[in-house]
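Course assignment 3, question 2. Fill in each field.
Student: A.L.
Task: Predict the tertiary structure for the chain below.
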Amino acid sequence: MKVTISHQEGMKFEAKTAKSSFIIDCPVISPIEYFLAGLIACTTSDIIVIPKNQDKTVTDLVVDGEVVRNDDHPRKFNSFRLDYKFNSDADDTMAARWVMASLETYCSTVNTIRDTTRITYSITHNGKIIRENEEMISGGGSNIDMGEIESCPS
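Answer field:
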């Protein structure tokens, strides 16, 4: 994977990938906000694709993410919290497995920071809280086998 960043003017930069390009407009949106959005978009896309591959449907998906950073430089993430809210035609156990599969196995961006960042999550499924303040176990991921899935390329 390769990304090229080129300065446009002022604090605007163009990011080019093999597939597309987009403008990074600092300080309107800071690079750390883009990074955080990328972390959340990775797991959010999994919560659409994993159920689809199981002939299930997710609707009304919203994932809120929040980080706490060091006060001093480098201002690394200390903790990362995700709140998943969605409806589906699956039971609560299956819905929780989708989130855990994303976080523990499929979402490469979250797995990139998991060794250095405390990650917690909550899940509200079909209007009911089914997991609250669960903490990911740091380390190299898990061996959850959900088969091959189609997702946003990493």
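Instructor remarks: The longest strand covers residues 58-69. The longest helix spans residues 31-53.
Grade: pending
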